[in-house]
Structure formats: C-alpha cells, structure tokens
Amino acid sequence: MKIPGNQLRRTRTALPGIVGVARVDRRTTHLLARLQPGDIAVIDHQDLDRATAQALVDAGVGAVLNAAPMISGRYPNLGPEVLVQAGIPVVDTFGGEVVSRVKDGARVRVHDGEVFDGDDSIAVGRPVDAEVVRGELESARTGLHAQLESFTHNSTEFLRREQDLLLHGRGVPRTATDLAGRPVVVVVKGHDWEAELAGIKPFIREQDPVLIGVDEGAEALRSAGHKPHIVVANAAAEELPALPLLKKAKDVVALVDRGAPATVTERFERSGIRPLRFETGATTEDAALILADAGHASLIVGVGMHATLDEFLDRRRTGLASTYLTRLKVGPRLVDAAAVPRLYDGQVRPRHLLAVMVAGLLALAAAIGVTPVGQEWVDAASPAVTDTVSTVIDRVQGLF
Fold first, then answer.
1. What is the pLDDT of residues 224-282, one digit of tens each?
2. pLDDT tens-digit profile of 324-383?
3. Which of 315, 341, 22, 58 is nearest to 200 (CA)?
4. Dihedral sign computed on CA atoms, order 35, 39, 42, 46
C-alpha cells in the first residue's frame, strides 16, 4: 500500500529531538565561520571556554555535540554554562570517532544524547544539563591548586621573556594617533560586549576617547556606529579584520611573535596597508592595553574584558600569564566598561545649570559694578538693601 506523501512527512516530523544540518570540524574556530542558524555543531573541544560558547550561541546553533568532555575537571571553565543557559541542547564525551561518523552537511537528529542519521543511531554521548554543569564545576573548583601552581610557573616564564616590554616599555610601536593624556577605549568582542559598549555611549560621545579595536573588536565598534582609530590584529590569525576597517583606521598594529620574519605581515602589505609591527608573546587584547599604557593614556576602559579568577582560568592556557601580568602593569589606569555607567553618566543636572547661571550673574554684576553707571546703581540701591537686611535680621531674632 502506498503511503501518502503528506502522511509520511507528518510521521517524520513527529520524531522527537532536534533536527538540523551537521557542521563538523575539529578546529572550532574554523567551524564558527561556517555555522548557520539551526545547524548541529560537532566539535572536539575539551573545556569549552565562554568566548567560544558565546560565539556558538550567537550563530544560533540548534545543538552542540562535543567529542571531548565539556568540563574535564582541570578548572571551572565557563562555556558549558553559557550554552545551557541559552537553552541549547548539549551532548559530550562521544569520543573522537563522532567526528568521522557524522558527515559534514548531513541532516541528523539528536535525542537523549543519541545521534541519528535517518533511522540509524550513529553515536551516543552524555546529555549535559544545568545540573551536570553545576556538579562538575563544583568538582573542578576543588582541584584548582594544581592549575594555580602551573599558572605561577607560566607567569614567571612569561615575565622573563617579556621583561623589557612589561618593565621598561621597550618594543612598543609608536602610533600616529596621539594617546597622551586622552582616555582610551579598548574593545574586544568578548562576553557582554554589546551591552557594555552601549552603556558607555555617553562617555564616548562627550569624552571623545581614542578607540582601539582588537581583532573582531574592530568590527564590533563599526557595528555600534563607531570608527576605530587603532586596530590591533594578530598577523598569524586565519582571518583579519575587514579590509575597509583597516584602511580607515589611522593606525594598524600587527602582532607577531618575537623574531618572526618580515613575511608574516605580507597579507597586510598586499592590501596596501603598512602595519606597525609589535613583537611580543602577549595576546592581542593584552598588547592593546600595553599600547595604551605606553602611550600615557589618562584612562583605559576595557570593553568585553573581565578579570575575575574564573575568567582568568577560562582563558587559553597560553594567554593566562599574559593577561595577569598585563593587568598588573596597567592596573592603575584600567577600568572595566561595566563600571563606567555607575561612575559617569554624562548628564547635566539642574544644579549644574543653576551654578553656571549664578556664576554668570555674579560675573555680570562685578563687571557692571566697576563702571560709573554701576557705581551710581550701587549707591542708589545700598539704603534699600541695608533696610531689607536689617528687617530680615530683626524677624529672625524675634523667633528666638
């Protein structure tokens, strides 16, 4: 018997779970560029960090399948919590074979930790919900001492390699943009960057700070209606900021490893851009902060940056020491953008207008008082003023 097509479609759509096109890549950064809303992201990313998780949420994925554990227990990483709070189904610990079993571009269904290709089950993992995340994060926090010991060693090694830069400011490129005595806003496309950038809009409008976009932070500035004065980009990154953004910036700073050959900046030069070369092992975010500090900025406002212990540990292992030591270097000048609206709102209140008006009237009175006509007015008004003051004093004394 032939089953009508519409009945067959109803049967298929009645199957439980999330259905979407699988996008597979062991390199999560490559995968992010290909994702479309509703796709099933298949990754191999142990200890998913918050920045990557937020990028998955922003891409609108239907589910995330991870060959590796979302939380290995080494430290309390923040990525899984971001996905769960966004309501995205998460399944992990499939094992490396899931990357080969699930074909890129295939339409798959995910239900109760199981992946189906048609009617065939092709992989089984562990569903990760809020309770699982909460329990594993708590367990991970008990083992932090090992990570902190490793962090101390890495910080010592980083300071040894970068002591001339951090302690003496040697090797920082000199920008055409004058930073001395000016506020600087450094934008990283990190967690909550949109809300933070919107919150300091009055500050940007009225204080006219130097705007530094770091990697994708340059595009974040543009999308918010601002033009970055300086763009700091990693020359080794797979994708550079958009060419129009680079050409409009007054300064482009290319971050390269120490001793890197001149060819590492060829991508910029082929586009007609002559970047300032910044040789350091610091991250691009930290390099931007060092750049602002070396330029004697009066204040540095960080957008998309956070400096809690969990945030430090959630960063890539190579950037942990860089971030910690850079914060120590620029600490007196650095302010988190989330705090700026509480400290500065840019509003002119009635008492400010009243003070200006009184000051203006006093200045006008003083100017008139030194003229001949003004002297006549003062002489004529003196008896009346004296009588008024005496009356007020008598009435006040009568109250006691």
1. 999 999 999 999 887 888 899 999 999 999 999 988 898 889 989 888 899 999 999 88
2. 788 888 888 898 888 888 777 655 455 545 555 555 555 555 555 556 655 565 566 556
3. 341
4. positive
**Do the beta carbons of residue 56 and residue 64 sit within 8 Å?**
yes
Tokens of 19: 């259905």
Under 8 Å between Cβ of 185 and 209: yes
15-140 — its CATH code?
A: 3.20.19.10
- Domain locations along the chain: 15-140, 171-343
Longest dimension (CA), the chain: 116
Q: CA 217 from chain center: how many Å?
A: 8
CB 281 within 8 A of CB 258: yes
The DSSP letter of residue 122 is E
Name residue 110's beta-bridge partners.
18, 115
CA distances from 346 to 14, 79, 232, 267, 272 (A): 55, 35, 29, 41, 40
Joined together, the tokens standing for residue 32 give: 């992010």
CA-based nearest residue to 382, from 390, 393, 371: 390
Neighbours of 137 (CB within 10 A): 18
Nearest alpha carbon to residue 106 among 89, 94, 123:
123
Q: What is the DSSP string of 184-235?
A: EEEEE--TTHHHHHHHTHHHHHHH--EEEEETTHHHHHHHTT---SEEEEET
3-state secondary structure of 121: strand
- 285-341 confidence digits (pLDDT tens): 999 999 999 999 999 999 988 666 666 666 554 456 787 788 888 888 898 888 888
What ranges in the chain are assigned the alpha helix state H? 5-13, 28-32, 50-59, 79-85, 98-101, 130-142, 144-168, 193-199, 201-207, 217-223, 243-248, 266-270, 284-294, 309-314, 317-330, 340-343, 350-369, 372-398
- Which residues, other chains included, contact 12 with Cβ-Cβ below 8 Å and sequence gap of 6+? none
Locate tokens 């943009």: which residue?
A: 177
